[in-house]
Design a protein that fits this description.
Blueprint (H helix, E strand, L loop, with lengths): L1 H23 L1 H11 L4 H16 L11 H34 L8 H20 L2 H11 L5 H8 L3 H24 L1
Length: about 180
């Protein structure tokens, strides 16, 4: 009976030494865990609390702990690593669930098809309102992929005039699309 009481007293003594060291090093431990956890103060606070609970429930260590501070940091570091691993497993499992549930169809949906068709019709109307040379310059540049020099030769104008035609045509189309979009 005396042995059991002595064992409990040593356990309490060991735990009280750890708790006292924990309280002395609380701020430093919190900063250490915050750095270890990438600046996440909330997770660091959770790990500090878990460390305290673990230390308070610590079984008798048998021998007296030589360096209580190092022991506390080791417990806290291990708890932090366990938490990071747990989160990675949960995240990986969650990502796998999303990947299996979400099948990506590269084709546009019906709504996008209708909107795209409306945009094309509006663009056609805008192009019809343009004078012939600016419209031709824009179409040769954007659709046919011709250079300014090739367009200039085809239309019988200078390169700088081709650039002006294209700018004027683009501004006109943009203005028409904005005007139609407001309706």
């Amino acid at each position: 009976m005396a042995t059991i009481c002595l064992g409990k007293a040593m356990a309490r003594n060991s735990a009280s030494v750890l708790i006292a060291s924990f309280q002395e090093n609380y701020e430093q431990l919190f900063r250490f865990l915050t750095r270890k956890l990438g600046g996440d103060h909330e997770r660091a606070a959770d790990v500090v609390q878990d460390t305290y609970v673990r230390l308070a429930d610590a079984p008798d260590q048998g021998d007296v702990i030589d360096n209580p501070r190092a022991y506390i940091y080791r417990v806290a570091g291990n708890l932090a690593i366990d938490g990071i691993r747990r989160e990675k497993r949960i995240t990986a499992h969650h990502d796998m669930d999303e990947d299996t549930n979400a099948i990506h169809d590269p084709k546009p949906g019906p709504e996008n098809i209708v909107l795209d068709r409306e945009q094309i019709l509006l663009l056609d109307k805008a192009l019809e309102k343009l004078p012939e040379k600016p419209r031709m310059a824009l179409l040769m540049f954007r659709v046919d992929g011709l250079s300014h020099t090739e367009i200039a030769q085809h239309l019988g104008v200078s390169n700088s005039m081709v650039a002006k035609y294209i700018v004027r045509a683009l501004q006109h189309c943009r203005d028409e699309l904005l005007r139609e979009g407001e309706k």
